Structure formats: C-alpha cells, structure tokens
Amino acid sequence: MSIAPVFHAEPEADVKAVRVHRFGGPEVLGLEDVPDPQPGAGQVVVRIAAIGVNPVETYVRSGKYGPRAFPYTPGSDSAGVVEAIGQDVTRAKPGDRVYTAATISGAYAEKALCSQQTLHLLPPYITFAQGAAIGIPYATAHRGLFHRGKVLAGETLLVHGASGGVGLAAVQLARAFGCTVIGTAGTEEGRALVAREGAHFVLDHRADGYLAKVMDLTAGKGVDLILEMAAHINLGKDLEVLAKDGRVIVIGSRGPVEIVPRETMRREADIRGMTLMNATEADLLGIHAAIVAGLENRTLRPVIARELPLSEVARAHELVMQDGARGKIVLVP
After folding, report:
1. Which CATH code for domain 14-134+302-332?
2. Which option is the CATH number for 137-277: 3.40.50.720, 3.20.20.370, 3.90.190.20, 3.30.56.70?
3. Which parts of 199-314 are beta strand (E)?
4. Residue 1: pLDDT over 70
C-alpha cells in the first residue's frame, strides 16, 4: 500500500512597507511587515528599487486632503523591475524596467501592486532613482504647461521655484518645446542647477525687486505664462509682470494671498488652478507618452538631490517641505 505524498504550500514571505495608522506629523510613518502583493487581472507587481517623495504625500499624511481609510501605505512614484503579472496584462512582462505613475498598494515599500495602465518603460540609461523622480513632477509640469497653460512655442515662461522637482521638469519641457525660460531659485546652488537644466535666465527670488528684472528681460512686455509653486507668496506680484493675455497656473499654495484684480483686467489675464488629480486616464496616457519620448531623446533628465534609505522616511518628509530644493528626494528600500 502506497501513501500519496502531501505537499504544503510555502507561506508567502512578508515585505517591508511604510504604514500610516493615523493622521499626524512625520512621526506617524512606520516601517512594518505586510503580505507579499499578488497580481489580479490587469495588475502588475513591481519590485521597487527607488521611491519618489512628493509634497502631496505630506498633505495626505497630515489630513489636509480629508478622510481616508487606515492603515495605508503612501506614495505613487517609484521605479523598479516587474516581478509578476496577472491575467490580461499586455503593457509589461517580468523583468521589464519600469516607473510607476500610481500604485494600488502604495509606493513606499519593497514591492508595489499596480494597474498596468500606470506603468511605463524606463529607457536603459535612466537610473531607477531618476525613474522614481518622474511620476508626479513631470506629469504636473506637463499638465501645467500644455493642458492648463496652453503654452505656445516662442512664448516666454516664468517658473517660480524652478530648482524643485516640478520646476526642473517644467524648465526642461519648455526649453525643448521652444519657449524662452526664466527660472527662479533661492540659493546659488539652485540657480546654477536651473541654468544647467536649460533656463535662459535665472533670478534670485529672495532678492528685493527681483521681478523688475523680468520686465527688463522681456523689454517691458512681460511673460506669457507663469508656473507658480508658491501662490501664497507670489500671486499678487506675478500679475504685475504678465503680458497681455498672460496666464498664471497655480500649482502650489500654502495659504491665502491678496491680489489687485485690476491687474488682471487691463491685461485680460487668467489665473488658473491646477491639480494632477483632475487629469483623466486619457490625459495621463498622453502625458506619459510625451514624457517617455522626452526621456528617450534625452531632452528630459530627472535630477536627484538626495537618496535616503526607506527607514528614514520621516526625515524625507521633513526635507521635502524645506526651501532650497535642488532636485528630487528619493527613498531606497
């Protein structure tokens, strides 16, 4: 009499992920074991090599974006290698180098579960750290410039806070498109970086009267488009350096501001708000097709300011909110 062997499935190994159990400061970010993600239909598991840290993740963590289910793992931007795919996946295969523009399970982890629609192939000369710096910064800059700003080749653009992730992306995109680019930064190192990445002119936004130089640089005409990262500080002054039919795209603001509406009237100028969360799936597919093309032809070059281990996620959330950015902060699992 023979006895059939009994096979026991090996338990799935846990992976490390940052978990948030309540709203609060950076101290609520904790590294924990979570189950190894498994892909369903149309889904992909990415083993993450680098994670991009964005200001929006600090707003969500602190409760400024309203209620959400706890616990959760923050993050949308990462880069790594496809480890497993579910049924009906056609956009990726195991072993592909990819960046994520969104995740299902959260990017602050060793692995992330993603919809195949939010994965994009990384060219071989783009590092994982650079890949993690693409998602929100480049998509925000693209949407601000082209969807909301309706920028045209030959127009003059002012990028406030041009040394940060979104600002540098905007400088590179606009320069490649044929705009005259004026960037601002608050440190000497930041201004040098903005110049290296393609701005025709760079101003110190901490200097008194710096916006008067914008009028000098444009022969008194003003700029056609402003991408504004700190509207609570700059919006009232921005209106004074707009050209006729100029537009200000509000990308970031941390408080109220006072403006003089007559400045918009005589210029017939527009103030337009923008958030990437309002982009449709079709918008995002088009945006990332353009970004991948820019990576491939090397007009887009994500800049990394600092890499930190995932265990230092709280410090990363403190650093990303400080002034004087010089590129992207990246976490490494």
Report:
1. 3.90.180.10
2. 3.40.50.720
3. 201-204, 223-228, 242-250, 270-273, 304-309
4. no
